[in-house]
Structures
1.
Amino acid sequence: MEPNDTTRSGNLCRLGLLGLFAVAGAASILGGCNNNEPPPKREAVRVKVIAARSTDLAQLMSLTGEIRARFQNDLSFRVGGKIVERNVDVGAHVQPGALLARLEPNEQEANLKSAKAAVEAAEAQLKQVSAAFERQKSLMTSGYTTRREFDQAQEAYRTAQASLDTTKAQATQAEDQLAYTELMADAPGLITARFAETGQVVQGAQQIFTIARDGARDAIFDVDEALLTCAPDDLTFRVVLASNPGIGAVGSVREVAPTVNTNNGTIRVKIELKNVPAEMTLGMPVIGSGRVKPGGGFAVPWTALVKTGNKPAVWVADPRSKAVSLRPVEVARYEAGRVLLKGGLKTDELVVTAGSQTLWPGRVIEPVEEAGQ
């Protein structure tokens, strides 16, 4: 039999009363939780820390280079010709005026003979016109010649004199050309390179030898461009032999190349050496070391570095409450296993080095100092 309307109304009333009792019970439970008791305290989290200690951020720069002469010249003939004599080889030490090589002088000798003959002819011509001119001067004084004849004799004399001067200059030039067939050393030094051989025909100004002059010595290094940006102006290098570190000298930067080597991104730097030992000969490989700009800072393990926004930061603990806060820092440079900071910390502050993933601002920690700190 289907329930009538009265039965259905009674059921609805009973369901409504049960719903009210359920809501009242839930409100009672929630009301019991909303008391004035403080929430339970969280336990301090154990993290590793170090005490910030100031350190010198000056980076030791170590480079490999070689010893070279301060002054190095390329030697060449001033005239072209065939080399008929070569008297020195690479490694030879020469003195000023030493004959290094000689060209075949036949052409220059012929030119000199011709120039000398021209001088003799010009001298004879001058002697002849000079006598004629002196005679015209005498006749002009006595009144036995005309002004026109006197002027002609004077002009002939001047022309002959100019011709003699010209031929003498040509003779001098021919003598120089003959002298240029001999290549002489102009300073004491060591022959470091040879670019021509006996029997070879060379042009004037073609490089024949390279000579490294005696005297001042430089150490040459190819330095990474980034290192130069942080190098002090008065950077001092200690340069030692690669084969014997006990032999060395001190030097300072003398010259920095204005351009970068596009092959390896380095810049050539020349170090002026002082009191160079005799063992540091030309071409010897050396190792140079020097420190970039000094400055105080702090070194922390790389695990201590976190990020706030787009900037680096570290977690720092308050010395009393042990509550941590996020501190922005300024990175000087990155090294293997550590980060050098030049700003953002104070001496003896506790820096979290491990466990930072469990931290938030104000979280209390139980610091555990890292071994070796």
2.
Amino acid sequence: MVPLVSVVYAFEPVTPRELQFPADAGAHPGHRIEWWYVTGHLETADRRPLGFQVTFFRVRNKDAEANPSRFAPKQLLFAHGALSDPALGRLLPAERAARALEGLAEARMGDTDVRIDDWFLRREDGGYRTRIAGDGFRLELTMRPTQAVMLQGERGFSRKGPGRAHASHYYSEPHLAVSGLVARGGRNVEVSGTAWLDHEWSSELLMGEASGWDWLGLNLADGGALMAFRIRDREGRALWSAATSRSPGGEPVSHDPATIEFIPRRTWTSPRTGTRYPVAMEVRVGATTWTVEPLMDDQELDARASSGVLYWEGAVNARSGSAAAGRGYLEFTGYAGRVPF
């Protein structure tokens, strides 16, 4: 007779449930990995375009949990920031890493409030504030919601494969109205624009065959929104695809994975790492095709010193046919080798 064995999860599992706000806007330290991710397009007073990225990661390190010291690295925090400036022609990146320590580096529960030293992203007064500073630039931005939260997948339960074991809790906030300043060369420049926020947390690694993913978030010109991704194998074939769209004032619609395609139209090779990325894409979701072109080609971010990932994260403009259709961000991982998670 085979005895019954109860399954004990080292990490809290992701199962379908109703997301609750503001509690689910905060940290979920029982899960393996979590990130808050803000990307957007900015304009200066003289209408010069810029792109920006601010991302905070939280990772639960269960191997350190038996250590009673308050300095044990039970929770690890990483942060990436970047400014895309076509006038410069390359990305200005920055990154930080720290073990969680109250008052210095922490991701708080209950609402969005994550920081590493003087870098932070937090929700206050009905909006978000962030501050990051790298070599040669600083971002100080306020972002205010103009639309309801957009739940991804099955009301926030986002599958990452054909089964339900590989999944995350995932929501977005498109069309955030941005204001603030960008500091360059000791000079503060006022900016305004539109951003997209993603918050996602999970406990399962990707499928064993997975090498990386392509992801797109678009603030559409008519007020709608589109998120689409595909997870690729080592040969570049799609293992799983997903997309959620929302028309202005409508409810989110999840699309059949079989109707989603990412079709490379042009590649760019990094002069630093030799990695080739498909920086121009056609993205097809159902009957609609968006042609996506980067604000500039060189938007590679080398974060191997912190999170261990080399990736391309870039501001893009989208067309539908010949008409401008929106602006957003495109992300590629796994083109320089399989991502560590």
3.
Amino acid sequence: MARSRKSAFDDLLVIASELPWQVSLGLAVISLLVLHGLAAAFAAAPTATTVADMGGAVIHQIIHVGALLAQFVVPPGFLIGAAASYLKRSRSIQLLDNTRTAQGPAVASLTWREFESLVAEGFRQRGFKVTEKGGAAPDGGVDLILARGTERFLVQCKQWRAQQVPVTIVRELYGVMAAQHAAGGYVVTSGRFTKDAIEFAEGRNIELIDGKRLPELLRKPESSATTSPNRPASTGGSRTSTPTCPRCQEPMVARVAKRGSSRGSEFWGCSRYPKCTATLAKT
């Protein structure tokens, strides 16, 4: 049996549905205006009196027809993608609200895809820009990419009801973090982590969020300021005391120097970075 191939329109729908719905909607309007204007600008074919003129006239006509047809494909593609993105975001918000009020299913009974959407929405409401990687199989590599300012964080979601998340999963994330030069990472599970996993994450800018700490991520922020968890600074074990920023009085988070003579050493940085660049030495 021949393998079905995706069309360019299918690829457009996938891209548009992964973007924030406001962005896809804006691109639908912009592409319609641009393509319509391009088709109108090339509507009148130039008079061809020589062979060279004929070549130019053919190119002129190709642009006109291409733009004319594209305006019935590209803008609708972005529009459909915007609708899909809006519905997806609405479902994840509703899922998070229901989980907070215990009106929906228990976290342990969610599918792996629902669990990822729930975790993604929890990070969004704490100020992160979230890209959901998805995938055909559950727990396949990095599930979410978080962004705040110039920093990127990687997230693996493990919807394991009975098993403990082993150290191999944390090692896997750490390897991807190094390969992609990520600032930190999270492993989120509704279950628990093994002792080896907790020990490995210690001091490696990986935060482990287990079933007991998950409500902290899903809890509604008390203010517009970003609340914990801000930045991987601890594991699922005990936490160290967190200093307050000397400039803006916001909590600070542990960071690792990426360059310079102090590369690899830890320090405290303001959680409002890059708006606030205050740092403190970590002792």
